């Protein structure tokens, strides 16, 4: 299966309330720890091997030609192993929470859940079949900037992917209404990562006092500064993998005027520098 058209290959594309897609390329094998998944995803691996380690310790491994379905509302580790003498490459599709709330889809999910035993953090699809592959590529095409179709049709194209996943026995859940305050802040910040997200502004958007905001974040073992920085670093990582933008431009895009300050923060978060994500060779680094 090919890796999609050039227009899709090196950019993150999406439509509000529908989904996002990208073609990820990585030059080194890296373990990317503690990635918060606020949305469910479908990932097709093209080169290398992807391993997902869920919070409960379960491992899910997908080889080239296979697909991974990841449930939202969880934190996972990714290990992207490169192909011999080459790169790691994958195409992914993130489903917006609004799409998962579609009335017909929820009804059909409920029917499937009555026959399944548990809600797994991920599933590996070893034989996806041509129908799911075709629906996946059609969805990616309409999410690209030159998709050329109305939002209503784009929505149906991405929804079709969800229905093919149902045929594989996989039902995806929308983000829980009772999601923690950190998850709510991630949703806010991810829409405008370069903005200045002050405590006053965030608390106003969430309709609570700053003291309540701090107290609730503390109860979840984090702070506003940590949550915002984590969202920015996750966005930066995606841009490094899925675009050809210079590191300095990515730093600006996630709210850092100083590339050096951005690089320090990135290394602190992930344990490796931004340049390592793209380069084809590197010295050993502990992960």
From TrEMBL:
It comes from Herbaspirillum robiniae. It comes from the Bacteria. InterPro entries: Homeodomain-like_sf, HTH_AraC, HTH_AraC-typ_CS, Tscrpt_reg_AraC-type_HTH. Signal peptide: none annotated. Pfam families: HTH_18. This is Helix-turn-helix transcriptional regulator. PANTHER family: HTH-TYPE TRANSCRIPTIONAL REGULATOR GADX. Keywords: DNA-binding, Transcription, Transcription regulation. Residues 183-280 form the HTH araC/xylS-type domain. The keyword Manganese does not apply.
